[in-house]
């Protein structure tokens, strides 16, 4: 009679047998590097060339739009900027506006008074220190009033083609919920993504994460039934498809 090897009560492995191989996790991630690669391969296949949904025509109007988008939706910014850019499409023209004039153009956007103050100071600094040009370094961008790391990353990526990763509320949520790059702060998430996202995907990485969070992995109810990475994502329980 053949005696079957006993299963160890804690490990679940049979004594004398080989342990189940677990893929090594990507640094800072709850997923393996192969899973990280697969996520971005699927994003690329679904949307090869994603773009920001903010309307802009040059680096300056992009910078203004991104500053305005803080704690506001892109759609609310896009409703306000056509009239604003009609009268102030350059740093010189924006710097010439009074705070009241600018406030009137952006009052439909969240925290508009503070943004108006920052934008006028930003425009003046561009004129005085950068000859009216938007700088293309993180240090110079973050020295501008109202510009933080996320805004600098977006401008560097979209306007200057740098492989930077801007972490907004959508990207932060997707990175944490999926297990891709868990972190308590946007900076922690960004640094992990910089370590694990393959170079070929970095230019579009934050666009994919933002759009996925905005339209599929929504804050209140993620639409898991139509998510292209649901089999990799660690979020549970998955949201079922609505009943017709």
Number of DSSP helices? 11
Q: Report the CATH superfamily of the largest domain.
A: Hypothetical protein, domain 2
Q: What portion of residues belong to β-strands?
A: under 5%
What is the CATH architecture annotation of the largest domain? Orthogonal Bundle
What coarse outline follows from CA principal-axis ratios?
elongated
Radius of gyration: 23 Å
Order of helices and strands: HHHHHHHHHHH
Account of the 3D structure:
By secondary structure, this protein is mainly α. The protein has 2 domains: 33-50 and 164-226, Helix-hairpin-Helix base-excision DNA repair enzymes (C-terminal) (Endonuclease Iii, domain 2), CATH 1.10.1670; 59-158, Endonuclease III, domain 1 (Orthogonal Bundle), CATH 1.10.340. It is built from 11 helices and no strands. The longest helix is centred in the middle third of the chain and has 19 residues, at 112-130. The protein is elongated and about 70 Å long. The termini are far apart. Mean pLDDT is 93; it is low at 7-14.
